[in-house]
Amino acid sequence: MSNGSVDMRTERAHSARVYDYILGGKDNYPADRAAAADIVANWPNLPTSMRANRAFMARMAHRLAADFGIRQFLDIGTGLPTAPNLHEVVQGIAPESRILYVDNDPIVLVHARALLASSAEGKTSYLDADFLDPDTIIESNQLRETFSLDQPVALTLIAIVHFIVEDDEVRRIIRRLMDALAPGSILALSTCTADSAPAEVETGVAAYNANGIPLVARDEARVERLFEGMDLLDPGIVLVNRWYPDRTAAATSDAHVHMYAGIARKSA
Ligand SMILES: C[S@@+](CC[C@H](N)C(=O)[O-])C[C@H]1O[C@@H](n2cnc3c(N)ncnc32)[C@H](O)[C@@H]1O
Q: Residue ranges of the domains in the chain?
């Protein structure tokens, strides 16, 4: 692959490429595949849990667009393009929807063009930035040019905050981002938990860490505290397969799903 001037740091495993490989994608390198094989050997239901998370993302985006009328989406930790991408879900409901994707992985940047295929009425943008540096995201031209900041935005943090092990750090960043958004804005989040399969997830988390990718599993109370200061909406903090399940999600065993989800609203 020609990467232009982007340093892909292919010699070590990256979370985006490990995720891509486990979900059957092609945008990964030998170090990612070796790490993924080791991780899945230690965490056999991880592929099922990842697919359940991705399906949750699509149901959540659909609900925010169709039932909550949200037309602006700030998606941080986007990952590699896959079907369906968030903008395809929400623009399928409201073509005027505007989406800003943010990721800090060089391979996601290389593939970002596939995320930028907006409907004519709406807009999609991409920002190469770090979740740990929310000021850069808030002050970016991409954010100003994509959103009307007097209108609600959905901040979607799907399978990213488990890579930040300190709860206080996650809360500080969420607060900084939500402070910049209008009342009525939504936080939608999914993150790893061991509550549904303690032994398997603890072994799997250790395998992630041993492969150089910090990962933390949070219990329900810790996940709920990430929404501090906001109004947690129905159905509260639940496993991703239990969040307004469709038939496939409803048929998925809880013991095979290791991700919690929740959404909350910033009050007026
Ligand atoms: C497991 S993938 C999730 C992708 C997608 N949100 C989903 O749920 O299908 C996590 C993504 O978060 C990105 N990521 C991890 N840490 C990040 C950070 N500090 N800043 C920005 N992106 C980050 C990774 O590069 C990766 O693309």
A: 45-265
Helix (H) or strand (E) holding 223: helix 220-225
As its CATH architecture, domain 45-265 has: 3-Layer(aba) Sandwich (3.40)
Q: Each residue of 133-179: pLDDT tens digit?
A: 999 999 999 999 999 999 999 999 999 999 999 999 999 999 999 99
pLDDT at 261: 98
Assess contact for 167 and 226: CB atoms under 8 A: yes
The residue to mutate among 9, 14, 39, 105, having the most atoms of ligand 1 within 8 angstroms of its beta carbon, is 105
Helix or strand run (H / E) with residue 167: helix 167-179
**Ligand 1 atom closest to the CA of 19, numbered from 1:** 1
Q: Is 53 in the pocket of ligand 1 (CB under 6 A)?
A: yes
For the chain, the first-to-last Cα distance in angstroms comes to 48
The string of pLDDT tens digits covering residues 233-244 is 999 999 999 999
